[in-house]
């Protein structure tokens, strides 16, 4: 289902749905099943619902909520909020997150170290993540972890600038029991 231009509200069923918001500030709801939701341009809200869902915010300041199931969340360009929900979720960043201006700050609300995954991958065109290995992308980036109150901030630097990923209410350094290098190794494994 394609919303086209304008602010749309699209709802999926219990099956495997593909919802594309198009331009505008859209609200997409996948429902039960294995759904693909793509916000595109605009400040969008995507809710995968139950099932193993793929959510891609696209350009804009988006909020993505995976719901129950092992979901893949790709914020895209902009300052995004990512909420995996129950299950082993993958939070994915691609070149589109880093190729624009420096200074974006994404927030991950419910990351569980050892359960959820953080990935950096190459992306192609308007589609979703490819199966390209993350290693070449990671080698072109540098990473730094710091604590800010109850949050951990991952600064990702490339030749284009520095962007931040905030892990809200998450101590990736485990109270100082892990060094920055150890935490990064576990985070990017």
TrEMBL record:
It is found in: Secreted. Signal peptide: none annotated. Keywords: Secreted. GO terms for cellular component: extracellular space. Its main location: secreted. SUPFAM superfamilies: beta-Roll. The keyword Secreted applies. The keyword Secreted applies. Pfam families: HemolysinCabind. One of its GO terms (molecular function) is calcium ion binding. It comes from the Bacteria. This is Hemolysin type calcium-binding protein.
């Amino acid at each position: 289902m394609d919303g086209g231009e304008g602010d749309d509200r699209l709802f999926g069923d219990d099956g495997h749905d593909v919802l594309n918001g198009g331009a505008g500030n859209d609200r997409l709801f996948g429902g039960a099943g294995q759904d693909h939701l793509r916000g595109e341009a605009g400040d969008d809200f995507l809710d995968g619902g139950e099932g193993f869902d793929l959510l891609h915010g696209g350009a804009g300041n988006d909020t993505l909520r995976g719901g129950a199931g092992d979901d893949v969340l790709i914020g895209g360009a902009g300052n995004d909020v990512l909420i995996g929900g129950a299950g082993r979720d993958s939070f994915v960043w691609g070149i589109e997150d880093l190729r624009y201006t420096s200074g974006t700050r994404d927030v991950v609300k419910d990351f569980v170290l050892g359960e959820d995954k953080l990935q950096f991958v190459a992306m192609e065109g308007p589609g979703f993540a490819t199966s390209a290995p993350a290693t070449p992308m990671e080698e072109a980036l540098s990473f730094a972890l710091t604590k800010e109150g109850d949050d951990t901030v991952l600064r990702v630097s490339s030749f284009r600038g520095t962007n931040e990923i905030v892990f809200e209410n998450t101590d990736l350094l485990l109270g100082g029991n892990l060094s920055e290098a150890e935490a990064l190794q576990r985070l990017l494994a």
